[in-house]
Write a structure and sequence with these properties.
By secondary structure, this protein is of the alpha/beta class. Helices cover about 30% and strands about 10% of the residues. Helix 5 packs parallel to helix 6, helix 8 runs parallel beside helix 11 and helix 9 packs parallel to helix 10. Bound molecules: ligand TV7, calcium ion and zinc ion.
Length: about 400
């Protein structure tokens, strides 16, 4: 098959349980587990599983979830069903919108669906397993495309995220690693992870995102939000936010990414990195507003990998399923070192091949084609780089 040889001097593990594909947020909800089915189909059809250790991940236990989440919230998630939710919380039944209230963040974005707890514990189990493989030095790179649900808070669901698998994975890494760098290229701000590690200097959180307060979810993550302001708080300056406007293209994103991540790594010296690869930053995403191509998105993964630091890679958002699958398959090939040998023409024989018909069965369709104008000027980009440099200068010594 497509030239994916195993001996390469480092070990990549792929953590996945196909049972996540059986769960549905609702007919019109943008979060479609189908994107994971398509990703798996590409990874297997290209033969990339042969270059990785594949693990069928187990479900995380309630005790494991409670290492970050509140007990009452974990209990709630473990018992709530579409059938009993209105009985338990009659307040949720508020007429036409279905339920929209503030009970553990449940609402239209985060509905209670059948098998919700199994879904949450399964994607989280994969991230925890992946982190443990890195801690045990049994993997150099560990991948969980079903994880990356960065908005979940201690005691509530938010933005399609119920359990914060990233926070739980980082907590595992912190048992063996002194410093963890978190990088988030989802088009949305990684607010849940940022909040969880706001006051520590052992985790540096960097999120690139569309920022338009009050208009674009979740409305947090301005450039000036860099950690606690109190000079005695260890977390001061350990949060980096990169707020962007619509339409950013491959070239400016790549330039910005390198000029933020390189100094962050050189000053922070992480012993492990967690990379959230939300694919809603691609052009033509149903919810996103950037113009990145599959290669532009993947360039971030290549760049992070090039430092050779133990790496946990998770998925995240991504609402045009076929392009999510293209991006994560391409990024898998980068992580196993097979991106140069992979045929851009999709395999002739693969399940669900027809899903890729629209763009002509290629791994690299043109997604950057100016659907939106790039509203990020060179001056905007330079301002961000300057701000980050000054911020990082404040954490030395
Ligand atoms: C990581 N945008 C998650 C990103 C979470 C974004 C939002 C929707 C949306 C929800 C739906 C739906 C939708 C077409 C899009 C202020 C609101 C507006 C709910 C309708 N269609 C990630 C969360 C964001 C739900 N939420 O980072 C059911 O879009 O903007 C909001 C909040 C209130 C709630 N309403 C939307 O990528 C995984 N939601 C259709 C059906
Ligand atoms: Ca982000
Ligand atoms: Zn997102």
């Amino acid at each position: 098959q497509n030239g994916v040889a195993r001996p390469k001097g480092y070990t990549v593990s792929w953590h996945y349980n196909p049972s996540v594909e059986n769960h549905h947020f609702g007919q019109t909800h943008p979060m479609k587990p189908w994107r994971l089915t398509l990703t798996k189909s590409l990874v297997l059809s290209y033969g990339m599983h042969q270059a990785m250790d594949s693990y069928v991940s187990r479900a995380a236990t309630k005790e494991e979830l409670a290492e970050f989440h509140k007990d009452e919230y974990v209990d709630f998630l473990s018992v709530a069903t579409p059938q009993n939710i209105y009985e338990m919380y009659p307040e949720l039944a508020t007429g036409t919108l279905g339920y929209s209230s503030h009970i553990f963040g449940v609402g239209d974005d985060c509905p209670i669906f059948d098998g919700l707890f199994e879904f949450c514990s399964t994607y989280t189990g994969a991230s925890i397993d992946a982190a443990r493989k890195l801690c045990a030095k049994q993997s150099d790179i560990a991948i969980n495309w079903s994880g990356g649900l960065h908005h979940a808070k201690k005691g509530e669901a938010s933005g399609f995220c119920y359990v914060n698998d990233i926070v739980l994975a980082i907590l595992q890494l912190l048992r063996y690693h002194s410093r963890v760098l978190y990088i988030d290229i989802d088009v949305h701000h990684g607010d849940g992870v940022e909040q969880a590690f706001w006051s520590t200097d052992r985790v540096m959180c960097v999120s690139f995102h569309k920022y338009d307060k009050e208009v674009f979810f979740p409305g947090t993550g301005p450039l000036e939000s860099t950690g606690p302001i109190h000079p005695d708080n260890p977390g001061k300056n350990y949060t980096i936010n990169v707020p962007l406007n619509d339409g950013i293209d491959d070239e400016s994103y790549d330039y910005l990414f390198r000029n933020v991540i390189d100094p962050a790594i050189k000053i922070f010296h992480p012993t492990a990195i967690v990379l959230q690869c939300g694919a809603d930053s691609l052009g033509h995403d149903r919810l996103g507003c950037f113009n990145l191509n599959i290669r532009g998105h993947g360039a971030c993964v290549s760049f992070v990998k090039s430092y050779g630091i133990p790496l946990l890679v998770v998925g995240g958002g991504g609402y045009t399923p076929r392009n999510v699958a293209r991006a994560w398959a391409h990024e898998t090939s980068i992580l196993i070192g097979a991106d140069r040998t992979l045929d851009p023409a999709l395999p002739e024989h693969m399940p669900h091949r027809d899903a890729f018909r629209k763009e002509g069965f290629t791994l690299f369709p043109n997604l950057g084609g100016w659907r939106r104008e790039n509203l990020n000027s060179r001056a905007d980009i330079e301002k961000i780089i300057r701000h980050v440099r000054e911020q990082l200068a404040g954490i030395r010594g």
